[in-house]
Amino acid sequence: MGTEGHNRRVVAGRYRLEEKLGRGGMAVVWRATDQLLGRSVAVKELPYDESLSAAEARRQRDRTLREARAVAQLSHPHIIVVHDVVEDERPYIVMELIEGGSLADRLAQRGPVDATEAARIGIALLGALGAAHAAGVLHRDLKPDNVLLENGTDRVVLTDFGIAQVAGTPTLTENGAFVGSPEYTAPERMSGVRTGPESDLWSLGALLCAALSGESPFHRDSLGGILHAVVVGDIQPPAQVGPLLPVVRGLLERDPDRRLDADRAERMLRAFRDTGRTPMSPPPAYAPTVGDVPRRRPQDLPGLRSPLPPVDLPGPDRPEEPFLRQPTRRVLIAALLVAAMAGAGISAAALLREESTGDGGPMPTRSATPTPTPTTRQASPSTSAPTP
């Protein structure tokens, strides 16, 4: 039960809330002190909303607790750590406190990163996604807001698992509602055809473009424009992507069965990091870092479908050719766009309502990270959290 102590709230008689780090559409993240262990932590609070029905409040609570369970089962240096869950009149998630801002903050304050830094971030996120996918967890909202960059350590941390899908558990998405960030959502998920580990990899491709150029390649002024760009428009990576173009092209392959898989993407990024050049195909010598979580094939994971045949990357004599020129695939994609637009019609208003601060979960829109204070930006798994 929350109590007042020295003008500061104490949750569960243990966690003293000290400073609001940010607020998302459905959660507040606090800097706090664990008085039992004497350490700083981040506490994510789901505020009480009197306007919600009992069923809606229960869904919010279930989503928050599901997020905590999803992250608690993951152990990886590039995934946020959950320490505790407190069930009071409202739920709280207690996480590690990461001093630093998000990748989105970094881009807003200092502009795009160079190719070497983007490759470093990509390698770390591939390790995090590999660990999550091996545990049957799909993140479903990979974007710069949900990647934290820890001050002083160069650690990259994936956070905000608020709309994650866990194999073997029911989803909490409302009927007809879309959850996620449209500019970073794979076309097959946008149109409701399927979702799997490969959908998170598409999001990583869009994130790498944003890291290198400052914004998603699918950024448009309207939701309809974003849908068209993601599902059917020609994909033209910005010029800044050049050094990592083979990786980005492979990840932004619209056909999920032809998309670059995590192991091959990591090998290509490691080759670039070591040689300054990205090979058109993954070199066999570059294995994941020693100590990384072993990966299982996505198609072997319970409840997840992801056949991953070889990726047909454009040849060096066709570097500027837009993706998906094939007429037959255009017809298929056009059909997907119709399905996407039909589905989006149900939830377009909700998507726009929380486009910049969604909190992940059954609410239709991109999950958001809390608005940060000028110094530290910490987010929990269902809002944004600090990243190294």
From TrEMBL:
Residues 273-324, 353-388 are annotated as: Disordered. Residues 15-273 form the Protein kinase domain. SMART domains: S_TKc. InterPro entries: Kinase-like_dom_sf (IPR011009), Prot_kinase_dom (IPR000719), Protein_kinase_ATP_BS (IPR017441), Ser/Thr_kinase_AS (IPR008271). GO terms for molecular function: ATP binding; protein serine/threonine kinase activity. ATP binds at K44. Keywords: ATP-binding, Kinase, Membrane, Nucleotide-binding, Serine/threonine-protein kinase, Transferase, Transmembrane, Transmembrane helix. Residues 362-388 have a biased composition (Low complexity). SUPFAM superfamilies: Protein kinase-like (PK-like). Its EC number is 2.7.11.1. The chain crosses the membrane at residues 331-352. This is non-specific serine/threonine protein kinase. It comes from Streptomyces hawaiiensis. The lineage of its organism: Bacteria, Bacillati, Actinomycetota, Actinomycetes, Kitasatosporales.
